[in-house]
Design a protein that fits this description.
It is globular and about 95 Å long. It is α/β, with parallel strands linked by helices. The protein folds into 2 domains: 269 residues, Aldehyde Dehydrogenase, Chain A, domain 1 (3-Layer(aba) Sandwich); 184 residues, Aldehyde Dehydrogenase, Chain A, domain 2. 38% of the residues lie in helices and 21% in strands. It starts with a strand and ends in a 23-residue tail after the last strand.
């Protein structure tokens, strides 16, 4: 039972089935009968039925339900952490201390945000009329989430949508549906009406494509690669659906020559290895001003050599496996091509053997000597790989940072307030950290520039994505014959002005 539709679990009706594997061991732990187009139809129909009542629920009612969801998730935090770790290969420490607490905080935030949908003040902008603004939900939202942060991405998509009064059909990755299904069930048990939050587990070309093209879906929210995002945009254009895109990234990590080298090195390791590098905001390109370059490379390499790979259920494990063996091969092949292209692998660069060979692990890797336009610098690796390149002037460093199609995240490392102000102004990214890399908070927006997409997750800004603005204008005069009418027709007995 891996579909959650209209408040209950259902079996998928597609003849296609897949097994879920633990990435750390390669062992199968579940089999999924995937969703067909019929299952998507049923989920959309349930969401449309539920929209009529949920869209009219008061902000207080929606907030109360979200508060109960937050409390229920807090009570079951360890259960969710274990499930998230097993399906994704996340070290249990990351799931316990990052994924689950972050999602609980997100739910709590949107419980408050549901009561704060703002609009322009009601006022007289015309002498004879009073104007006001209504923020109204869009309708049924079809959301497609990735496999790297299944629980958090479910939260980022579902929470602002339902807080604003929409209903939703979520398609998680078929590789990692467990915690999305658990969250939907928990939400229903906490009082969310049946049909408000539905989950269909299926493949992108079948269930995902049908959801995007469905005439009963009013908006599409997609998180994933830029290449697939372009396909989603093209498909949604046929019915002029609103589209929210959070796409790929290739985050620059710019270290100026006055930076705290120790802090920058530690930040680079944490920022590049989080979630085994399977993070669109991960630090992937470190540009280091030449006076610090050699020492930075040496320090980061030493720190990475000490990172402990191991079983994901061991609290001492620092780095888990990649999501799958195909992803492991993809990362290994990109590193091999960089090596063949005359780049130097300073540390890591391979697939570990021994006890780790049963899982899809890859060594933490530092690469130097790559050309700016090479694949390893320009393309998203989605693995524990950091490329380090030198620069001389501040102009050069900032230019290199912007020299990709992506613009999701970046960081600047400096003790100079003027340098930091310039970097945050000129780097083209949706978030620029100063002297840190990765932290996110529910109160602040997350979203990209350029080919990293458009629209915001989290924060009050995300509610703009899931609401439509209506201008309501009231006549204040009670006069039947308005002065402006004469521009259209002449009243009996009135001589037109010349």
């Amino acid at each position: 039972m891996h579909q959650f539709i209209d408040g209950e679990y259902r079996a998928g009706t597609s003849p296609d089935a897949i097994t879920l594997d633990d990435p750390s061991t390669g062992e199968s732990f579940d089999t999924i009968q995937l969703a067909s187009a019929d299952d998507v139809d049923a989920a959309v129909q349930a969401a449309r039925r539920a929209f009529a009542a949920w869209s009219k629920a008061t902000p207080t009612d929606r907030a109360d339900v979200l508060t109960r969801i937050a409390n229920a998730l807090k009570d079951r935090a360890e259960e969710f952490a274990q499930a998230e770790s097993r399906q994704t290969g996340k070290p249990i420490r990351l799931a316990r201390e990052f994924d689950v607490p972050g999602t609980i905080d997100n739910v709590a935030f949107f419980a408050g945000a549901a009561r704060n949908l703002e609009g322009r003040a009601t006022a007289e902008y015309s002498p004879d009329h009073t104007s006001s603004i209504r923020r109204e939900p869009i309708g049924v939202v079809g959301s497609i989430a990735p496999w790297n942060y299944p629980l958090q991405m479910a939260g980022w998509k579902v929470l602002p949508a339902i807080a604003a009064g929409n209903t939703i059909v979520l398609k998680p990755s078929e590789l990692t549906p467990t915690t999305s299904l658990m969250l939907a069930e928990l939400a229903c048990d906490a009082g969310l009406p049946a049909g408000v939050f539905n989950v269909v587990t299926g493949r992108g070309p079948t269930a995902g494509a049908h959801l995007v093209n469905h005439p009963g879906v009013d908006m599409v929210s997609f998180t994933g690669s830029t290449a697939v995002g372009k396909q989603v945009i093209r498909a949604a254009a046929d019915s002029v659906k609103r589209v929210h895109m959070e796409l790929g990234g290739k985050a620059p990590f710019v270290v100026f020559d006055d930076a705290d080298l120790d802090a920058a090195a530690h930040g680079a390791v944490a920022g590049s290895l989080i979630n085994t590098g399977q993070d669109c905001t991960a630090a992937t390109r470190a540009y280091v001003q030449r006076p610090l370059y050699d020492e930075f490379v040496a320090m980061v390499s030493r720190l990475m050599a000490g990172v402990r790979l191991g079983p994901t259920n061991d609290v001492a494990t620092d780095l888990g496996p990649l999501i799958s063996f195909p992803q492991q091969r993809r990362v290994a092949e990109m590193v091999d091509r960089a090596r063949a292209d005359k780049a130097t692998i300073v540390c890591g660069g391979g697939i570990p053997g021994g006890d780790l060979a049963a899982g899809s692990y890859f060594q933490p890797t530092v690469i130097v000597g790559a050309a700016q336009q090479s694949e390893i610098v320009q393309s998203e690796v989605f693995g524990p790989v950091l490329v380090v390149l030198p620069f001389d002037t501040d102009d050069e460093g900032l230019s290199l940072a912007n020299d990709t199609p992506y613009g999701l995240a970046a960081s600047a490392w400096t003790r100079d307030v003027y340098r930091s102000l310039r970097a945050t102004r000129e780097i083209q990214a949706g978030v620029v950290w100063v002297n840190d890399h990765i932290p996110i908070i529910s109160e602040m927006p997350h979203g990209g520039y350029k080919q990293s997409g458009y629209g915001k997750d989290m924060s009050q800004y995300s509610l703009d994505e899931y609401t439509q603005v209506k201008h309501v204008m009231y006549d204040r005069t009670g006069v039947s014959e308005k002065a402006w009418h004469r521009t259209i027709f002449t009243l009996p007995g009135v001589t037109p002005a010349i």
